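Q: What residues go here?
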């Protein structure tokens, strides 16, 4: 009996021992403070700067590394700073479309010729195909500046004109293209009679009480968008680059939202907990009938639908965003980087090393 008590005591104490080499610590015993230290160390080691929301067992913490505005010495995480959401905005646009579908305004099978009669082949394209990038629309140069100060309506009309002038890909085959989500933003405008920006504010920002999420043209003077940088020749903060105004304005619904990793995580919660979408509605969004791979409604779903992933960068800048969360939002990361380093897969590998310390055996590399 005595020896059994000793063995239990040893087992109990061992669960609190933190080994010097953090990579050898069992992920299940990782405390929030240890996870934070590991994330900062890993980011610095790989020259990644930005802000990350780390979620473990439903408990979240924000980790900030480096400066978001180096010349003014404004650190990442400062309440003044906003970051371009990039392609991670697509799930928000898809969520508003899903709300309208559940309000019986149309269905995922509705042909978009209802709203875009002048768009070639629109009588064959469905709303669901826009949401799953299977429409065949293939607009080139959506993330390059064309020097035009677009209004929301102007950007949508420009997208239609470019789509009509560009060779299509095969309909019902996957071809990721920003134009699909710009057209979805246009549908939101036409159905609600309000701008896409107004819909984001009323349907996303207000219900979640978000304080750091704005459509680009509505960013207040008290805020500033972060600057992106590169790590070069052994130095951080090289090749400074803002998000280009003209590029942002031509991407309503697909790249004109600015936020923080913390606010974005709250949005992901809202897409599942009934504040924006119910769990049933999220399942509808993420399992659209027109999908041909794991992409649906702004996400790639993996591991039998247990994980949701999205990756984005912003044209002509160095901003890089990556999200990998369990679909119940209880574990994972949201990375908003303003200084990446290495290839897309290298950046994801760094994120994965953090994910392994959140929940071992739960996440995937990319």
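A:
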């Amino acid at each position: 009996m005595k020896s059994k008590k000793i063995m239990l005591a040893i087992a109990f104490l061992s669960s609190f021992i933190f080994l010097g080499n953090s990579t050898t610590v069992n992920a299940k015993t990782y405390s929030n403070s240890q996870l934070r230290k590991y994330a900062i160390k890993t980011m610095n080691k790989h020259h990644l700067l930005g802000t990350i929301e780390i979620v473990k067992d439903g408990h979240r913490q924000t980790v900030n590394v480096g400066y978001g505005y180096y010349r003014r010495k404004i650190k990442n995480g400062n309440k003044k700073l906003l970051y371009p959401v990039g392609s991670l905005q697509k799930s928000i646009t898809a969520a508003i479309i899903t709300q309208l579908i559940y309000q019986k305004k149309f269905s995922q099978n509705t042909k978009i010729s209802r709203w875009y009669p002048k768009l070639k082949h629109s009588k064959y394209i469905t709303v669901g195909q826009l949401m799953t990038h299977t429409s065949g629309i293939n607009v080139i140069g959506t993330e390059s500046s064309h020097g035009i100060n677009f209004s929301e309506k102007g950007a949508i009309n420009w997208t239609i004109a470019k789509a009509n002038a560009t060779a299509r890909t095969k309909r019902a085959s996957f071809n990721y293209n920003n134009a699909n989500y710009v057209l979805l933003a246009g549908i939101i405008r036409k159905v609600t009679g309000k701008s896409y920006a107004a819909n984001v504010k009323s349907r996303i920002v207000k219900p979640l009480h978000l304080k750091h999420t704005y459509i680009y043209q509505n960013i207040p003077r008290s805020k500033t968008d972060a600057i992106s940088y590169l790590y070069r020749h052994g130095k951080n903060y090289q090749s400074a680059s803002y998000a280009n105004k003209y590029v942002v304005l031509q991407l309503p619904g697909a790249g004109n939202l600015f936020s923080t990793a913390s606010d974005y995580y709250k949005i992901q919660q809202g897409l599942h907990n009934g504040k924006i979408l119910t769990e049933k509605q999220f399942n509808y969004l993420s399992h659209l009938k027109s999908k041909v791979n794991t992409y649906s409604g702004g996400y790639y779903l993996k591991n039998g639908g247990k994980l949701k992933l999205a990756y984005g960068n912003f044209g002509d800048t160095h901003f890089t965003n990556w999200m990998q969360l369990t679909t119940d939002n209880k574990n994972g990361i949201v990375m908003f980087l303003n200084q990446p380093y290495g290839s897309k897969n290298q950046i994801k590998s760094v994120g994965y090393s953090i994910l392994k310390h959140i929940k071992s055996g739960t996440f995937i590399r990319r």
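A: Context that may help when evaluating the design: The chain has one domain: 22-356. The domain at 22-356 is CATH 3.40.710.10 (Beta-lactamase).
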